[in-house]
Specification:
The chain has 157 residues and is mostly helical. Helix 1 runs antiparallel to helix 7. The chain is globular and about 45 Å long.
Length: 157
């Protein structure tokens, strides 16, 4: 696949990405568990069909010690026994927050209440910000058809 745009050559896009990377750093440094962050990024990227983000986040998760079994089962998290109740709540919120157009009411009160049982307010803020952020990256990559497969863990710092 050939990308539609060279995202690294555009000064405007460079400035935009710099700002969303700064937002990403704030979320990464939040009290939301790092493993949960990667699982959420992977699940949203699966839903959105973003190969670039899947390539990056599965490799980063593996580098951080995530097991192959858990990585392989993210798409089937409801049936998998390898995720905690808190991770399941985060994955449900990520799915509903990613599929806003699929549900007339957006995120259900039930999904929100379940997440709130497992995460404090600061972690919920980070989770919501993360879902918004990964969806932004997914859309940028999918719209411009960024290729996947060549990412090296730690490539961007």
């Amino acid at each position: 696949m050939e990308p539609r745009l060279n995202v690294y050559a555009s000064p405007l896009l460079g400035t935009f990405v710099k700002h969303i990377n700064t937002a990403g750093k704030a979320v990464a440094d939040s009290p939301l568990p790092a493993a949960t962050q990667e699982l959420v990024k992977i699940r949203a990227s699966q839903i959105n069909g973003c190969g670039g983000c899947l390539d990056m986040h599965t490799k980063e998760a593996a580098r951080a010690g995530e097991t192959a079994t858990r990585l392989h089962l993210v798409a089937a998290w409801r049936e998998a026994t390898v995720f905690t109740d808190a991770e399941r709540a985060a994955l449900e919120l990520a799915e509903q927050g990613t599929r806003l157009a699929d549900a007339a009411g957006g995120v259900t009160d039930e999904a929100w209440a379940n997440a709130a049982k497992h995460y404090d307010e600061e972690q919920l803020v980070a989770l919501v910000a993360l879902i918004a952020l990964i969806n932004t990256y997914n859309r940028l990559n999918v719209i411009t058809q960024q290729p996947a497969g060549d990412y090296q863990a730690g490539q961007f710092g």
